[in-house]
Amino acid sequence: MIELTGIHRTYTRPTGESVAALADFSLRITRGELVAIIGASGSGKSTLMNILGLLDRPERGTYRFDGHDVADLDVAAQARFRNQHVGFVFQAFHLLPRTTALENVELPLLYSERASTDGLARRALEAVGLADRIEHTPSELSGGQQQRVAIARALVNEPELLLADEPTGNLDADSAREILDLFVALNRAGRTIVLVTHDPATAARAQRVVRLERGRLASDSVARVADPGSLSAVGRVADPAPASARPARTNPPASPPKRPTTEPAAEEEQR
Ligand SMILES: Nc1ncnc2c1ncn2[C@@H]1O[C@H](COP(=O)(O)OP(=O)(O)O)[C@@H](O)[C@H]1O
Ligand SMILES: [Mg+2]
């Protein structure tokens, strides 16, 4: 679904010093994955999210989305791409104040090219458990509820890709866990999600953890999950150790063991 190759993004500090926010960075993401991006502050996580969401352009490198080169689209085409294919969730919610939950969620529909948008915003709010809060303004909602509104807004156009940059960073532990449960449920329902976090417990609930270090890929691993069912146990983390301390296998995973077969013809099917 996503293929970043050889991405470079450099910023110039006010002092004139140049910083490689991403350097020779490559990553593939397959449809249906839930990927946690971790790394120290300043390691390039937000830069990566902005590039994935076409909010920023790399100086070098290619970005293919479903096989299409999207890095070189013009500004209008990039905006259309974002509206149709990507939903964003940010740490600070970014809801319009003095505007109801329903109106906030309806906003992306103004730019949608859909024939009908009737009921979509309401259904998106129902999907995040806020059916009874649609007329509330952000100041009348808790932090966790505001983030749900933001998630409903991100989902209202039914994007294939959901990008979340530290979505639980401003929330208390209970709300954070609820929001995380929601992301896991959305992923189970088929949504591809890339989620930045500095919380090891959050990262532990993703199947795949990508760690950045000074703009480079430091590790890319599939988490060891003994019992995938345990992921749904609210409040429980499969393994309390930080992702980096856990045994991990490199991604992509080795091909699954071949099914034993007695048919000699199966030999011919080998690639
Ligand atoms: N707009 C900007 N101008 C200058 N430097 C920036 C800008 N955005 C990010 N950087 C620098 O790029 C590096 C990566 O930043 P960022 O992607 O925000 O990291 P993270 O999200 O992992 O904390 C940091 O050194 C940061 O200071
Ligand atoms: Mg950041």
UniProtKB/TrEMBL annotation:
Domain ABC transporter stretches: 2-239
The keyword Manganese is annotated on this UniProt entry: no
Pfam family, one: ABC_tran
Keyword list, A-Z: ATP-binding, Nucleotide-binding, Transport
Transmembrane region(s): none
Compositionally biased intervals (Low complexity): 238-252
Keyword Transport belongs to the record: yes
Region annotated Disordered, chain positions: 228-271
GO cellular component: membrane protein complex; plasma membrane
Family named by the database record: Belongs to the ABC transporter superfamily. Macrolide exporter (TC 3.A.1.122) family.
Protein name per UniProt: ABC transporter related
Source organism per UniProt: Opitutus terrae (strain DSM 11246 / JCM 15787 / PB90-1)
